[in-house]
Amino acid sequence: KQEVTQIPAALSVPEGENLVLNCSFTDSAIYNLQWFRQDPGKGLTSLLLIQSSQREQTSGRLNASLDKSSGRSTLYIAASQPGDSATYLCAVTVDYKLSFGAGTTVTVRA
Amino acid sequence: NAGVTQTPKFRVLKTGQSMTLLCAQDMNHEYMYWYRQDPGMGLRLIHYSVGEGTTAKGEVPDGYNVSRLKKQNFLLGLESAAPSQTSVYFCASSYPRGPLNTDTQYFGPGTRLTVL
């Protein structure tokens, strides 16, 4: 059974600092890995998707890396802003199904 | 283009009552999913469907039933609600795999269900 772990569970940083969020998974036979953002009381929004054959994906201030062999992914958010405050969820796809981590709740202090 | 919508947004049930949650998508997606999210845990897959008329069990299917009579709708039913089913329920949909497929799932806003 695929287990997805996100560390830390919560993170508080001052505005402008770079954010580093970690995700690990136990079974490397994944189709892809996704990072989602969830605002309080809202649904999930996909931020980045990395196919299993890729090493990283970038979108604006966001960069996600994938090391499938070691079962790890890292989401970097450069120059954090208060608007980046949210919960970030990592999920891996196996057989059309997503397995989620519990998320990292980020607070960016102005 | 409304994306993925869910009704109702909130509901309070008594133990033993039944209800149906409706998910609708207007993106012509083949795949649809129902998840539940509990505090301190990631989303867990309840049931999913890979096309009209098909359904399959996910990680936590017990106590739930689903139906996909129309491609755009995916219904989640609770026949006899229990307090353990208090949760936030999310529906999602995605494109089938193909040359342009990215497997990105699009999520609805969620239904907050409380069972007393």
Give a structural overview.
The complex is a heterodimer of chains A (110) and B (116). Chain A has 110 residues and is mainly β. Helix content of chain A is 0%, strand content 60%. Chain A has strands spanning 4-7, 10-14, 19-25, 32-38, 44-51, 56-59, 62-67, 72-77, 86-94, 97-100, 104-109. In chain A, strands 2, 4, 5, 9, 10 and 11 form a 6-stranded mixed beta sheet that branches. Chain A has a 5-stranded antiparallel beta sheet with strand order 1-3-8-7-6, with no helix packed on it. In chain A, strand 9 and strand 10 form a beta hairpin. Chain B is an all-beta fold. In chain B, the strands form 2 sheets. In chain B, strands 2, 4, 5, 6, 9, 10 and 11 form a 7-stranded mixed beta sheet that branches. Chain B has a 4-stranded antiparallel beta sheet with strand order 1-3-8-7, with no helix packed on it. Chain B is globular and about 40 Å long. Chain A binds chain B through residues 4, 9, 31-32, 34, 36, 41-46, 49, 89, 91, 93, 96-103, and chain B through 4, 31, 33, 35, 40-45, 48, 50, 58, 90, 92, 97, 102-110.
